[in-house]
Amino acid sequence: MNPALVLSILALLSGLGLRYWINRRKFYRRSPIGAEGFSSYEKSVIITFLERTGKWIAYILIIFGLLFYWSYSRQKKEKEVPIEMQNLK
Questions:
Q1: Given a cut of 60, is residue 78 above it in pLDDT?
Q2: Is residue 65 within 8 Å of residue 11, measured between CB atoms?
Q3: What Å distances lie between residue 34 and 26, 75, 76, CA to CA?
Q4: What is the number of other CB atoms lying within 10 angstroms of the CB of residue 11?
Q5: Mean pLDDT over residues 29-55, rounded?
């Protein structure tokens, strides 16, 4: 298996998993009214900062995953071209 493919799968899964986990925590923290409940102001600030940072990290992982997959598909196409050229001769 190609390392670019493995890295793309790992980056995509970890990025999507991180986004899912953050959104799930945020969903279960909401009250029936829709307001988020925190036990203190400090926890509110720290948790929202960490969640924002985590979401940016997740976006970066997803982008890297897509770039690694694009790299893998380019490598795969380059390997197929010489075989086709040999059949034409």
A1: yes
A2: yes
A3: 11, 48, 48
A4: 20
A5: 91
Which residue is associated with the tokens 């897509």? 66
Distance from C-alpha of 70 to C-alpha of 53, rounded to nearest angstrom: 26
Alpha-helix runs per DSSP H in the chain: 3-29, 41-88
Residues 6+ apart with CB under 8 A from 44: 36, 38
**pTM, whole model, 2 decimals?**
0.79
- Distance CA(11)–CA(4), nearest Å, equals 10
Category of 30 on φ-ψ map: left (φ > 0), alpha (ψ -120 to 50) or beta: beta
Residue identified by tokens 């790992």 is: 10
Tokens matching residue 79? 């390997």
Q: Write down the residue that tokens 């925590």 correspond to.
A: 25
Give the tokens for residue 23: 């959104």
Domain positions in the chain are: 3-88
Query: Rounded to 5 degrees, what are φ and ψ at 36?
Result: -80, 140
